[in-house]
Design goal:
By secondary structure, the chain is an alpha/beta fold. The chain has five helices and six strands; from the N terminus they run βαβαβββαβαα. Strand 1, helix 1 and strand 2 form a beta-alpha-beta unit. Helix 2 packs parallel to helix 3. The N and C termini lie close together (9 Å).
């Protein structure tokens, strides 16, 4: 399984990647919006772990871009609770209705 981890906090990014690689997952990383958007546009991932607050843009926009491609990549949102409180508004419910085929991990 190929996983993209999008997280701007370097220590957390390292820990997540290390854990996933120890579990024999293929893991790629991005620490900002631009790099993550580029990787998601070019490569296929089974799962993307996406932070909401990123340098250069929003993780929600990454999810929107990813789903616009009609991909079946599973999405896991990773973020500090106070960031979610700050960043998520009523528009999240509009976005979530477009994510009807959301799978965290597929067999």
């Amino acid at each position: 399984m190929k996983i993209l981890v999008v997280e701007d906090e370097s220590d957390l990014l390292f820990e997540i990647r290390s854990f996933l690689e120890k579990e024999n997952y293929i893991c790629e990383t991005a620490d900002n919006f631009v790099d993550a958007d580029e990787k998601l546009a070019i490569y296929y991932y089974d799962v993307a772990l996406i932070d909401i607050t990123l340098p250069g843009g929003s993780g929600l926009k990454l999810i929107e871009n990813l789903k616009r491609k009609n991909t079946d990549t599973g999405i896991i949102i990773i973020s500090a609770r106070n960031s979610l409180d700050d960043k998520l508004t009523d528009s999240i419910w509009v976005l979530m209705t477009t994510l009807q085929n959301l799978f965290i991990f597929r067999n």
